[in-house]
Specification:
The structure is a single chain. By secondary structure, the protein is mostly helical. Helices cover about 40% and strands about 0% of the residues. It is built from three helices and no strands. It is extended and about 45 Å long. The termini are far apart.
């Protein structure tokens, strides 16, 4: 017997970005040019990741804390700075 992967309440979740992307796809299908800045994929945009960023990522990958979950609302210190 298979165990369900999602709880019954999961169908109540929504991700606004998915709705925006659906609308953008409709606009694109109508012949308009779409700039996918909301997705933020630097490689798709042909940007080169600077070496200093690669080094930070490589160092973080060596720390066990990098593989833990953060609070669902984000890191408090970051929210306080940007809020």
């Amino acid at each position: 017997m298979r165990q369900p992967l999602l709880s019954e309440g999961a169908k109540e979740l929504s991700y606004e970005i998915r709705e925006i992307v659906k609308k953008a796809e409709m606009v694109k299908a109508a012949g308009e040019t779409i700039y996918w800045e909301n997705i933020g994929d630097p490689i798709q945009k042909k940007h080169i990741i600077p070496q200093w960023i690669r080094e930070i990522i490589a160092d973080l990958a060596k720390e066990n804390d990098s593989y833990s979950y953060c609070p669902s609302k984000g890191i408090l210190e970051t929210r306080e700075i940007s809020g």
